[in-house]
Amino acid sequence: MAEKILMNEYKALAKETWTNISLVNENIFEWSVALIVLNPDSLYYGGYFKAKMTFPQNYPYQPPEFAFERPLWHPNVYTNGRLCISILHQPGEDAMSGEMAGERWSPVQRVESVLISILSLLDDAECSSPANVDAGVQLRNDPEGYKKRVAEDREKSKEDIPAGFEMPTHESAFKKEEKVDTFSWSDSEAEDFDFDNSDDDEEMFDDDEGTDQEEDEE
């Protein structure tokens, strides 16, 4: 079922202009993803930030992994490009970090919501527990120096723009085009989901049972 869900999401995102996606070696579980920042007020405006997303075989029960391919100077990006963001953390509450279940991954999430959260994080860094301590310190103590460092990464990112690809240049590019249907859960289904017994509950995704449920609701 994971393949079907990912393919639906892939087809929908392929219509967007703020991201450029492709499959790695035709593998639906590995995506090449480029984030294109279209907010002119952003330090990252005009950048083409290429990354790789890897999905588990039991998606969407578990979150994907996300890592930038080029170094990106940001408090929440490790020096190896791996991103630290709550939405990609394992489901459920975490007493150690203080993160609530609603902040972390759940089967309700989609790739689109992850990418939009990452775009938001770029200009709204979480510095309380930075993945890159030096970047966090510079952002706090030397914002002008931080801006210059980000500008360098932004310009280098443009080297990854593929030949023939037309970069969008205006926020109007965020307007949604008509999409194919994608899988989603209702709020009540998400609340009832038992993360500890996800293997037993995978039958929830069965097409026939989903059809019966819709008929019951009608």
From TrEMBL:
InterPro entries noted in UniProt: Ub_conjugating_enzyme, UBC, UBQ-conjugating_AS, UBQ-conjugating_enzyme/RWD
Q: Where is the composition biased (Basic and acidic residues)?
A: 141-161, 168-181
Any one Gene Ontology molecular-function term assigned to this protein's record: ATP binding
Q: Give the region (Disordered) as residue ranges.
A: 133-218
Give every UBC core domain span: 1-159
Active site (catalytic residues): 84
Name any one Pfam family assigned in the record. Answer: UQ_con
Task: Give the UniProt keywords, A-Z.
Answer: ATP-binding, Nucleotide-binding, Transferase, Ubl conjugation pathway
PROSITE patterns reported in the protein's UniProt record: UBC_1 (PS00183), UBC_2 (PS50127)
Task: Report which residue ranges the record marks as coiled coil.
Answer: none
Listed Gene3D superfamilies: Ubiquitin Conjugating Enzyme
Q: Provide ranges: composition bias, Acidic residues.
A: 188-218
Q: Please give the start and end residues of each transmembrane region.
A: none
Q: Family per UniProt?
A: Belongs to the ubiquitin-conjugating enzyme family.
- What name does UniProt use for this protein? Ubiquitin-conjugating enzyme E2 2
